[in-house]
Design brief:
Blueprint lengths: L4 H31 L12 E3 L3 E3 L3 E2 L3 E10 L5 E8 L4 E3 L6 E2 L4 E9 L5 E11 L6 E11 L5 H15 L7 H5 L13
Parallel strand pairs: 2-10, 3-10
Antiparallel strand pairs: 1-4, 4-8, 5-7, 5-9, 6-8, 9-10
Organism: Leyella stercorea
Protein name: DUF1573 domain-containing protein
InterPro entries: DUF1573, Ig-like_fold
């Protein structure tokens, strides 16, 4: 059994080629990292105001849709970039025309549709907007409604709902309830009148 000289030379050539390949790969990586860098600019945080971010909508009938429009104002000095919109449940749809950038000092409407076709009863959900929003990078929109079974005479349901509103004092918004279609928690109570 002799040592095959050709085999040893072939192993040396392969090892030399592998070492040269690794050295070349490392050298190109070092050169490439200094010349082929991308320019990632971190966006500064900006201040966002949402008109009535917590809302209470009147009852909706099972199978109906509730359209909501939230107005976002960029009151900061930087461009607002919304990187992600995350509804809390799959029955909330974000409109395709919703913008993802808002210049400083501008406001835009953000439209969402809640499909009331899954459960009956209280539905309380949130929609989170992620981006360069001060202070934590997220703005939360919250809404609730009651999903009710369809009845034969919908006017009965509406009369009942109006009676409940009158008894709870939630209609005391100087006519704004009928204009906006929802109420907020900052309305005056009967004790304050």
């Amino acid at each position: 059994m002799g040592i095959n000289i050709r085999h040893i030379k072939a192993v040396r050539r392969t090892a030399l080629r592998s070492a040269f390949g690794i050295l070349l790969f490392v050298a190109l990586g070092l050169v490439g990292s200094s010349t082929l860098t991308s320019c990632h600019k971190r966006l500064a945080l900006t201040i966002v105001e949402v008109e009535d971010s917590v809302r209470h909508y009147p009852s909706v009938v099972l199978g109906d849709e509730l359209t909501m429009v939230y107005v976002l104002r960029n009151t900061g000095d930087e461009m607002l970039v919304i990187t992600d919109i995350q509804p809390a449940c799959p029955t909330i749809e974000s409109a395709a025309e919703n913008v993802t950038t808002i210049p400083p000092g501008e406001e835009v409407p953000m439209k969402f549709v809640y499909h009331a076709d899954k459960n009956i009863g209280l539905a309380r959900h949130s929609i989170r907007l992620y981006g360069n929003i001060a202070p934590k990078g997220v703005a939360e929109l919250v809404f609730d409604t009651h999903v009710v079974r369809p009845s034969i005479d919908l006017s009965d349901h509406e009369e009942y709902h109006q009676k409940v509103l009158r008894s709870a004092g939630e209609h005391l918004l100087d006519g704004r309830y009928s204009e906006k279609g929802y109420y907020t928690d900052d309305h005056p109570s009967r004790d304050e009148e």
